[in-house]
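Annex B, item 7. Sequence and structure tokens for protein A, then protein B.
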Amino acid sequence: FKTHVQNIASGREKRNAEWSICRHKYTAPFKNISNDAYLTVKRVILVMRGRTHTFLHRDWGDFTAANEPFGLGDGTTTVFQLRKTSDLGGGATYDRVITKPDAGVAVKVNGVAATGVSVSQLDGSVAFSSAPANGAVLTWSGEFFVHVRFDMDYLPFSLDDKNAGGFITNGSVDLLEVLDE
């Protein structure tokens, strides 16, 4: 999220949420990797032109859904969007829109495997050949990716120690989630 925090003279603060959607940030460290492995990381940085282009990445802390509700049938709507909902109880929730599902997503209607349904790997939309009944609970299970870009235009690293196979390389890259790609 992006929140502007203003401290005021009384010691209190004012907070203004500038973004309503979370953009995840990841740090991917590489430790004691071979020169060949380092060159693979370097090739990805070069092909993506640093921060210029995006690519798909698994958020290893959150990349699966198991019977995750994503819609409620109304008898007329045939297209729905995949999502994951974070809920701590008490009514406050956060929906993470899923736009890049992996192949093999399973969709259920009222707990029964759906037929006549297609899931788009391009945008995460779910299209039913006929509208789910009014009040039908739609759920999905599967894995998904997120679009990210490098949050740097260079590849920081250090050459540490030398072994029989060459230098040992250490470093890390920062990735930033990109929305609507």
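Protein B:
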Amino acid sequence: LYIRVARASASALTIARHFEGHPKLTAVLYAGLESHPGHAIARRQMAGGFGAMLSLRVRGGGTAAVAVANRLRLIVRATSLGGVETLIEHRASVEGPKSPVPADLLRLSIGIEDPADLIADLEQALAGA
């Protein structure tokens, strides 16, 4: 478990840094990014990494976010806090119309795959959506 969590946390930070400022996204939400409002607290409280969960806010709203999720080839659509495989969910769809989660938000639970492969999968999905 320790090795998996360390790998997933390192990969999540790599992915978050890659997509921060991406033109197809309005935000990357990850406490490991210095731009995150809770970064200073996270840095003090989280030893060994910032965790494997991150969120992307897709430019174009809920329809665009779902289109991105549907175009992924490697990343699996599923609701879970994660395992060895990287998962993505459009939480607003799961919760329904009364969800407080923004419609443009995709939540990722990063696994142990090569972060370059995950970045490539997300890039192709964003490019085609």
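Comment on protein B: Helices lie at 2-19, 39-45, 61-71, 91-95, 115-128.
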